[in-house]
Amino acid sequence: MDTVEQKPIKHPLIIRHLGCCDYEPVWQAMQKFTDQRNADTIDELWLVEHPSVFTQGLAGKAEHILAAGDIPVIQVDRGGQVTYHGPGQIVAYPMINLRRHGIGVKSLVHGIEQAIIDTVALYGVKAERKDNAPGVYVNGAKIASLGLRIRKACSFHGLAFNIDMDLEPFQRINPCGFSGLQVIQLADLASDVNINTVEQQLIQAFCQQLNFTAQTEQAA
Catalytic site residue 21? Predict the structure, then answer.
């Protein structure tokens, strides 16, 4: 008798579109959500654009901020070094119960990176990951950065995906702690790039890679 291959159960994922929000209130909301969630709390993915801000991770070194100028620098509790957020960039925060989902941190990172790789492939762009340098790269230039925090086996913080933005602030830092690292965006690599469309494509790729089913989109 032939055996029937069991398809993995897809977990629900609530999608929240936050719009353009200051960084610190969203960071505080992520912490609160993670601290108050329980074993039955449905996982969520928050999508947001932030006004111009540099964020410095737990491993961050001050010398990687070259000249912040008028852009604020916020010390945060994610992994990684310094990065920049600004309008025209998709920032996505996956709040995932890793233990319940049956994955480890490496699998989550791999899934996030692959979702971005799959998304840019829709525009004819070949991207890749690098060993020991989380994020997604095109010909050695960084198109997306990644920094997570795990608390109670649950993730928060997430990814920043450059779509159509002012890249000048990246010249004021050593992005992710790498001097001279080039930063690029999707709009410079493909035509007809619309950030809202890319966001929907990213959600679909994220759910496919990490075995989720997106729930009805909700506001925060």
Answer: no
Residue pLDDT, tens place only, 32-80? 999 999 999 999 999 999 999 999 988 788 888 888 999 999 999 998 8
Classify residue 2: in a domain, yes or no: no
- pTM attached to this predicted model: 0.93
Question: What strand order describes the sheet that includes 89-95?
Answer: 128-130, 133-138, 141-151, 154-162, 89-95, 43-49, 11-20, 212-214
CATH number at residue 78: 3.30.930.10
Contact 91, 85 (CB under 8 A): yes
Helices (H), 69-180: 98-101, 105-121
In a domain, 58, yes or no: yes
Cα separations in angstroms, 207 against 15, 83, 87, 159, 180? 11, 25, 24, 15, 34
- Bridge partners, residue 74, by sequence: 55
Q: Which of 20, 154, 176, 207 is catalytic?
A: 176
In the block, residue with structure tokens 């032939």 = 2
Identify the domain containing residue 150 by its residue range.
Answer: 46-211
Tokens, residue 199: 């966001």
Amino acid identity of residue 182, one-letter, is: Q
